[in-house]
Amino acid sequence: GNAPPGVDPEAFSWFQAVDADHSGYISVKELKQALVNSNWSTFNDETCLLMINMFDKTRSGRIDVYGFAALLRFIQQWKNLFQQYDRDQSGSISFNELQQAFSQMGYNLSPQFSQLLLARYAQRSSNPSIQLDRFIQICMQLQSTTDAFREKDTGLVGNVRLSYEDFLTMVVTRMM
């Protein structure tokens, strides 16, 4: 069939290929099988779930062809940014590249924090680096938690005082 109005024909044809059960929707499992990093590893479950939730207008845990087309545009934007920060064109982002990326995005984060992210999200190796899927996940989570922090930091002083439950509420509503 033809692509629905407003949907790129290439996105539509990819949607049909990814929709393995022909339900008219893409699940997290189907999305995971369709997306790969530069090292041919599939995207991780957490990133796929975050992205599905972002484009799932019905809160059904899956996306239709319109959500899928929007998701592809979203991934392409992140991929372009990722390639911009992947200075050595290795297909992954090293510690120094991650530090530069954060700085250029306007985040004032310590080297220790970047090291913590590498330890949490990089594949285990002597020279840990971040693949595209984890880069998208880290950036989405940073953006989301920064937005939550700014809601509480009304004076823009860089500090907030909140209860443990307020903190948990921020995390649960932004991350899960």
What does this molecule look like?
The chain is 59% helix and 2% strand. With 176 residues, the protein is mainly α. It has two domains: 1-85, EF-hand (Recoverin, domain 1), CATH 1.10.238.10; 91-175, Recoverin, domain 1 (Orthogonal Bundle). The chain has a two-stranded antiparallel ribbon with strand order 1-2. It starts with 8 loop residues before the first helix and ends with a helix.
Annotate the secondary structure layout.
Layout: H1 9-18, E1 26-27, H2 28-34, H3 45-55, E2 62-63, H4 65-85, H5 95-104, H6 111-121, H7 132-152, H8 164-175
Antiparallel strand pairs: 1-2
Number of domains: 2
How would you spell out the order of helices and strands?
HEHHEHHHHH
Shape: globular
Query: Which CATH C-level class of the largest domain is it?
Result: Mainly Alpha
- Number of strand segments: 2
- How many separate helices? 8
In CATH terms, what is the fold-level topology of the largest domain? Answer: Recoverin, domain 1
Tell me the CATH architecture of the largest domain. Orthogonal Bundle
- Our Rg estimate from Cα atoms comes to 18 Å
How are the strands of the biggest sheet laid out side by side?
A: 1-2
Low-confidence stretches: none
